[in-house]
Structure formats: C-alpha cells, structure tokens
Amino acid sequence: MFKDISFGQYYPVNSPVHRLDARVKLLITLMFVVGIFFIKSYFGFMLTAVVLVLIILLARLPIMSVLKSVKAVLFIVAFTALINLFLGGENGSEVLWAWKSLVITKASDHTTIKMVLRLVLLISGASLLSLTTTPVALADGIESILSPLRHIRVPVRDIAMIMSIALRFIPTLFEETNKIISAQKSRGASFDTGGPFARAKALLPVLIPLFVNSFRRADELAFAMDSRCYNATDKRVKMKVAKIGIGDVVALFVMCAFFTVIMLDRYYWCGLVDTLIFGGLL
Prior knowledge:
This protein is mainly alpha-helical.
C-alpha cells in the first residue's frame, strides 16, 4: 500500500546533483517550484519538463523512483482534473462536448491540461530534493539558511534537529507500516475490498500498532540521546562543513536563467513562443 511513496527516501549514488551543497539545492528547488506557478504557456511547461528530465539524467536516478511520488497522489490529480475539465471554462469559449449540465469547452480543456502538467512537474521536482539529499545534509542546509533568525531568538538548531529526526524516520515508518499490513493480511485482514468507510475501518488494526511503535521508538531515541548528552546548543560542531563549489555556482546560475525565461515568457512574450512552435494546433 505504501511501497510507492518515495518522499523522504534517499537514493544513494555518486552524481553531480548529489554532490551539490544542500543549501544550493534548497534554493534551486524553491526557484523551480515558484517558477512552475508562474508558467502560463505550453512552451513553459515543455521547458520545465526538459530541465526536469536533464536533472534526473544528471542525478542518475531511475525514472520510476521519481514517478512513484506522482503515483502516490494520482487520485488527487485525477479528481482535480475532472473538476477543472467541467468547471474551468470561460464564458464564450468554444464548446467541445456537452451533455445536459456537463460542458467541456476549449478553455477548460487547456486549463485542465496545464493544471495536470503543473502538479506532475511540481511533485516530481520536489521529490528530487529528498532523493538526492540525505536527511542530515538537508537539515544542516535548512539550519544554515535560517541562521539569521538566531538574532531574534528563534531556536534554529532545535528546529533543524527536529526536522532531521522527522525526515530520517519517514522511510522507517513506511517500512513498518508495510510490515504491519503484511502481518494483518496473513491473519485474514482485507484492505482492498468494500467501500471507503469499510477500508478506513480496516486500517484501525494498522494505525494502533503503528502509533504504539512510533511512541516506543521516540522514547528509545530520547533515552539514547540523553544518555549521550546530546543537545542542540551552539557549542555543537559538525563533522562535515558545507562549502560552496564551482558546481554549486553553475547550478544556481542555470536555475536563475531558467527562472528568468519563465518570467519573460509570462510577462513579455505572452504566448508568442507558443504561436511560433505550435502554430494553429492550440
């Protein structure tokens, strides 16, 4: 049931993307996500897809490991697409199909396609961050970016430690959930039959032991950290000190160029590239 969830899972491989500084990858991911929301034309989506595929190839990741994150929310994407298909049209738009009160217009068709592309690219791009960055490096990067907040007494190190522990245990919880489900199925439990309420009720024998095991793990971790005098004070040092390299500068420059093209396409070119590429197809 939870085997297709890739969020929080790290794919260990030696690649230029994996070797990038976590702070740079956080900024690149932020720019990528923000840029997706500014895309208005099919050229922008095509450019974003090309950039995403190039990053996946450069990171040496299996394409299925990235698509697993989309599969996990496929129902939400399909449900949102149906709503936009029948309700996302504009008055006066060309009608493509109509049946009673259900109407599909040309405008709603384009709106639905762009919405699906935006969600797929958004989820896939965000999953690359966890696939190419270890939880410890990601937490250290967040701590470094939020370090100016220490001047206003924000516990940055505490927040980073909490995030590091949470990210570290996400794959562990998914793995333990699969084990509990397999154990319940061996006892005759069924999770794939019946209506939504029956399936939700069938998850109770899974959720109760999962919560019990989670609290037990939390207690064991707290005792282990306390016995080792672990804390999140400013006196702590890091085994690996993050440094910005040439590859980080190049990656940030490329992403800035991508973001600039997206802004130009939205506010200055205004669909001109779509007309030149697709002609009268749209």
